[in-house]
């Protein structure tokens, strides 16, 4: 895969990540993308403005790979900027192919370098027009230790969380250490990202904002991924949902599907609509992804299909208050440490 002269997309996001394998090959690619910057050319700076646009990565100082998903062609790295104080996390992802891009490849700018030919099979490295070879790039700056721990590859554990475990361990942790929600309120209050809003229902009780997830560039539908951020504040997660919230959930389902169908020509039967538990940030939101796209966090221990959530609340108003809910946590996270202290998790012993 060729990454030279790659165009970059810049956002300041919430973060979410699943563990993956780390390969030295990817470390070399990342260093190449970062223009060969090393710690030797680092210089101090008093600039510490998180809202200042980062035009390129020439000042990025690579430190280490946090996680790597070879199958999805994504990688997450930790580092810093020579002209700014504080740590940074950068997420690099190859965007999917589309019919439009493939058609544009048929030019003399698509240079083929032969690797081998055997009978009718030829293997080539294709160096294409940089404008067709963009990396979706997400930058978290300044990054906290919470951000770094969230992305770093570590052993993971499945928790079967009862109502009692939620009230005694998980909820106190959420109240003490949840991620800052400023970016969410900026979107809801139209202070940031207004140009990215796909649909909005302004009703304070059942309204929401539909916006592309930061893992999606908002272009090709092959990896369509949108979030519905509810207008109502104070609903942290699936655990807080009751029968009284059915109008909100049904409104998101109906109007979210209609908005996506109108804008992207994708029907409800082609959408995966779900809620994460545990979520990455504790302001209730619903995920909309293209069904053919194997998005992160779609597995049984993480995602709850919205129509099923609605059905469960119709059967019993306090279903999610009383139920045992599974979730995954990773070693090193404070919530995981709390469950270890209580003897709920047995730590994995590292091999010498």
Please compute the radius of gyration using only Cα atoms: 22 Å
Across the major sheet, the strand order is 8-9-10-12-11-13
Low-pLDDT segments:
1-48
Overall 3D shape: globular
Order of helices and strands: HEEEHEEEHEHHEEEHEEEHHEH
- Cα-to-Cα separation, first versus last residue: 35 Å
Structure characterization notes:
α6 (246-264) packs antiparallel against α7 (306-315). The strands form four sheets. The chain has a six-stranded antiparallel sheet with strand order 8-9-10-12-11-13. The protein has 352 residues and is an alpha+beta fold. It is globular. The two termini are 35 Å apart. Helices cover 24% and strands 26% of the residues.
Topology, please?
Layout: H1 24-33, E1 60-69, E2 74-81, E3 87-94, H2 99-104, E4 111-118, E5 121-127, E6 135-143, H3 145-151, E7 156-161, H4 163-177, H5 182-188, E8 199-201, E9 208-212, E10 225-230, H6 246-264, E11 271-276, E12 285-290, E13 303-305, H7 306-315, H8 319-322, E14 325-330, H9 334-341
Antiparallel strand pairs: 1-2, 2-3, 3-6, 4-5, 7-14, 8-9, 9-10, 10-12, 11-12, 11-13
Helix pairs in contact: 6-7
């Amino acid at each position: 895969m060729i990454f030279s002269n790659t165009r970059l997309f810049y956002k300041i996001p919430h973060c979410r990540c699943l563990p993956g394998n780390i390969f030295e090959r990817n470390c070399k690619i990342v260093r190449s993308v970062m223009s060969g910057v090393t710690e030797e050319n680092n210089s101090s700076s008093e600039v510490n403005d998180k809202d200042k646009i980062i035009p390129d990565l020439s000042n990025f100082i690579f430190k280490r790979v946090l996680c790597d998903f070879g199958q999805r062609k994504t990688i997450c790295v930790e580092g810093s900027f020579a002209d700014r104080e504080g740590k940074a996390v950068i997420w690099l992802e190859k965007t999917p192919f589309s019919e439009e891009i493939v058609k544009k490849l048929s030019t003399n700018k698509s240079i083929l370098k032969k690797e081998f030919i055997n009978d009718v099979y030829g293997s080539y490295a294709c160096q294409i027009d940089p404008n067709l070879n963009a990396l979706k790039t997400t930058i978290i700056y300044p990054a906290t230790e919470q951000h770094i721990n969230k992305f770093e590859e570590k052993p993971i554990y499945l928790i079967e969380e009862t109502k009692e475990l939620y009230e005694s361990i998980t909820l106190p942790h959420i109240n003490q250490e949840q991620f800052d929600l400023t970016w969410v309120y900026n979107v809801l209050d139209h202070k940031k990202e207004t140009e990215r809003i796909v649909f909005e229902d302004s009703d304070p009780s059942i309204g929401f904002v539909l916006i592309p997830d930061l893992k999606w560039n908002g272009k090709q539908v092959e990896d369509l991924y949108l979030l519905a951020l509810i207008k109502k504040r104070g609903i942290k997660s699936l655990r807080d949902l009751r029968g009284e919230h059915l109008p909100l959930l049904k409104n998101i389902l109906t109007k979210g599907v209609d908005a996506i169908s109108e804008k992207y020509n994708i029907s409800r039967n082609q959408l995966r609509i779900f809620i994460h538990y545990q979520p990455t940030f504790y302001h209730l939101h619903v995920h909309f992804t293209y069904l053919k796209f194997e998005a992160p966090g779609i597995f049984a221990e993480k995602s709850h299909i919205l129509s099923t959530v609605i059905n469960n609340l119709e059967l019993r108003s306090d279903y999610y208050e009383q139920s045992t809910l599974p979730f995954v946590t990773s070693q090193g996270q404070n919530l995981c440490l709390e469950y270890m202290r209580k003897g709920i998790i047995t730590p994995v012993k590292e091999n010498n």
